C-alpha cells in the first residue's frame, strides 16, 4: 500500500500481484499517476471499480457497499447446492 497526502488531499494505491486500486480525493494527481505508470508499464485502466479480490463493490450516495454474492453463488454451485430452494429465516426478535 502506498499513501500520499498533499494539501489535505489523500491518494492511496493498493497493490496485489498485478492489480492496482487507486483511490483518493485528488483526481488530478490520480490522472497524473496513471499517466506516469503507463509510460513505464503497459497498463489497462478498467474504470470504476466493480470487483476487487473477490469482493463486489458498489458506490452509493451513502458510501461504499461490499458483498461477496458471486463468491457465495460459486461455492453453492461447486458443492451442488445452487439449485436448492431458498428458505427465508425470520429473526426471532422481529415481528410481522
Please describe what this structure looks like:
By secondary structure, the protein is an alpha+beta fold. The chain has two domains: 1-47, no CATH class; 49-96, no CATH class. It has helices at residues 27-40, 69-78, and strands at residues 2-6, 9-16, 19-24, 51-52, 55-60, 63-67. Strands 1-2-3 form a three-stranded antiparallel β-sheet, covered by helices on one side. A hairpin with a 2-residue loop joins strand 5 and strand 6 (63-67). The longest helix is centred in the middle third of the chain and has 14 residues, at 27-40. The radius of gyration is 19 Å and the shape is elongated.
Tell me briefly what this model is.
By secondary structure, this protein is α+β, with helices and mostly antiparallel strands.
Q: How many domain regions?
A: 2
Question: What value does the average pLDDT take?
Answer: 89
Largest sheet: 3 strands, antiparallel
Query: What is the number of E strands?
Result: 6
Organism: Chenopodium quinoa
Domain Reverse transcriptase Ty1/copia-type: 6-85
Protein name: Reverse transcriptase Ty1/copia-type domain-containing protein
Pfam family, one: RVT_2
